[in-house]
Design a protein that fits this description.
The protein folds into 2 domains: 179 residues, 2-Layer Sandwich (Gyrase A, domain 2); 46 residues, no CATH class. With 254 residues, it is of the alpha+beta class. The strands form 3 sheets. It has a 4-stranded antiparallel beta sheet with strand order 2-3-8-4. A two-stranded parallel sheet has the order 1-5. It has a two-stranded antiparallel ribbon with strand order 6-7. The chain is built from 8 helices and 8 strands; from the N terminus they run E-E-H-H-E-H-E-E-E-E-H-H-E-H-H-H. Its cofactor is FAD. Keywords: FAD, Flavoprotein, Methyltransferase, NADP, Nucleotide biosynthesis, Transferase.
Length: 254
């Protein structure tokens, strides 16, 4: 997966309206640190029978994969907690708030109390379905027309430009950042460090991705699904046997 540096890339179809704001549709996730491996899961599980010798065991993929499948199938979840993955996420605030619903994660987010926020705001690209049909819990999203997209782009850019102008006006007048930030929309881009273990990440992926083959099909907002998909790419790379078992048993966290 290619990760673009935060605050350097314009979305291909996102125009910039005037000098005051930047509109962006690209949401980025970068793995910045980890202690994650399939072998680590096996060592954590084996300590119950092998004691301290488990920490020095070296096992082949056949054994590791078999034990991980057993743990996943039997819902023995704690061996999947002895690892960590830290992601740097650059996304609109409303998507980051979806992440923060997951309480077993650790978060550190840039603070609008201590720094001026940049003039970067989210607007969906033209591939994003715009209209909702059905009732909550049973609805689906369908594409909008070109006119719908133009309405969305115009309305959001006007609101963002007005909000950022008032925000900057208050900062220039010496109003405290923690008060000036109140006028900014949840579509303002923010940056957060997010750390989890594999068990927590699998729970997140089960809820924040839409997969027809999942035991419990979820219907997340597309923006948080973009975050989840990028995290899953890294998870599958770091822990391929765990990810394979996660897929095999319905994408349910043990």
């Amino acid at each position: 997966m290619t990760i673009s540096p935060a605050l350097e890339v314009h979305a291909p179809d996102a125009p910039v309206f005037g000098p005051e704001i930047e509109l962006r549709s690209q949401i980025t996730v970068e793995l910045v640190d980890h202690t994650a491996s399939d072998l680590g899961v096996v060592r954590a599980a084996r300590v119950s029978t092998a004691g301290e010798a488990a920490h020095r065991e070296e096992r082949g993929d056949a054994y590791i994969g078999g034990l991980i499948r057993y743990l996943m199938r039997s819902r023995h979840g704690s061996p999947f907690e002895h690892n960590s993955m830290t992601f740097l996420v650059h996304a609109p605030i409303f998507a980051i708030r979806h992440m923060m619903r997951h309480r077993m994660w650790s978060f550190n987010e840039e603070s609008a109390r201590y720094k001026d926020l940049k003039n970067v705001f989210y607007v969906p690209d033209r591939d994003r379905a715009l209209k909702q049909e059905g009732k909550p819990g049973h609805y689906q999203y369908v594409p909008g027309s070109e006119e719908d997209y133009e309405l969305l782009s115009t309305a959001t850019s006007e609101a963002y430009r007005s909000a950022f102008r008032e925000y900057q006006k208050m900062l220039d007048a010496g109003i405290a950042r923690e008060l000036a930030r109140m006028v900014l929309p949840v579509a303002t881009f923010s940056t957060v460090y997010a750390t989890c273990n594999a068990r927590s990440l699998m729970h997140f992926l089960g809820l924040r991705t839409n997969r027809a083959d999942a035991a419990y099909v979820s219907h997340p907002q597309r923006e948080i699904e973009v975050v989840a998909e990028q995290m899953e790419d890294e998870f599958a790379r770091l822990m391929p046997l765990t990810h394979e078992a996660f897929e095999k048993f319905g994408r349910v966290s043990p």
